[in-house]
Amino acid sequence: MAYDLTDKLVIGISSRALFDLEHENGIYQSEGVASYCAYQRLHEDEPLLPGTAFPLVQALLGLNSLIPGRRLVEVVVISRNSPDTGLRAFNAIETHRLDITRAAFTGGEPISRYLQAFKVDLFLSREATDVQAAIDGGVAAAQLYAAPADYHAPAGQIRIAFDGDAVLFSPESEQIFKQKGLEAFIRHEQKHRHKAMAEGPFAKLLLRLAEIQSHFRPGTCPVRIAIVTARNSPAHTRVVHTLRAWNVSIDEAFFLGGLPKDQVLQAFGAHMFFDDQEGHVELASAVVPSGRVPYKGGELGGGKRRPATRKRVKKDDAENASQAAKAQPSTT
């Protein structure tokens, strides 16, 4: 019988999101594909340091040892690398003793078409184009920022934090705020406070995590989930009613009313934080691993999404090789 992924949390991840390949990406950018490929071959047995998503992936894979005979999580490396240059990532996986056995190396071709084939629930990458394509294709995805300096993942528990609007929930309410202002937003949320919001791009991921939580007795669950949102009273009411409608219990919620999110996230000890706003992600990424969730189609409320130009966000050119270089693309 073929192996079934449908009952598991499946994480798709690029090699540059899993490992620190910034030096290698610099070689690709400055010297081209041939130099990158030669460097990867020459150094393929040298260990790679952890990347932004490494602590989260390592912790999630640890769930598989908690229930005898049951795998809860699978991780698949999905990369634009060629199989030849991708060998270094698999060597690093073995060195770090990560329980990852599956990969897709597309040789420069777009990644998004393979996410559904691997039943991916969450795709993590440093490359904005691939993340946008995943979101447009209906897969939860985030563009990761550089890993924070001196970050130490909390031991014994996986902690994941989400923004609300345009991440867990649909962007409808945020669109009202952007188009009509705060007062219109508050009136809308009060009027619809007992009406559940529609699902956002990360709703199905939240439900999958809640299903994992259901395998453990209260007080013993190794997965802890928080919502960290700019909403405050009275707009918090609709969040609570939406989660009730979804039959999901959030462990912690922070309604900040516009306060900065970074200190709360640091205190929470997030393995990963997901938000749609560049400003929030940039601030948070200095203290916890963070990823930006793009809007479907790249726009919200008729306004174009601002490009990721801040210094902490680097376009993963090594994972987005030009058409001319597809025969030997670099990737992460």
From TrEMBL:
Residues 320-332 have a biased composition (Polar residues). InterPro entries: 5-nucleotidase. Residues 303-313 have a biased composition (Basic residues). Signal peptide: none annotated. GO terms for biological process: nucleotide metabolic process. Residues 293-332 are annotated as: Disordered. One of its GO terms (molecular function) is nucleotide binding. GO terms for cellular component: cytoplasm. This is 5'-nucleotidase. The lineage of its organism: Bacteria, Pseudomonadati, Pseudomonadota, Betaproteobacteria, Burkholderiales.
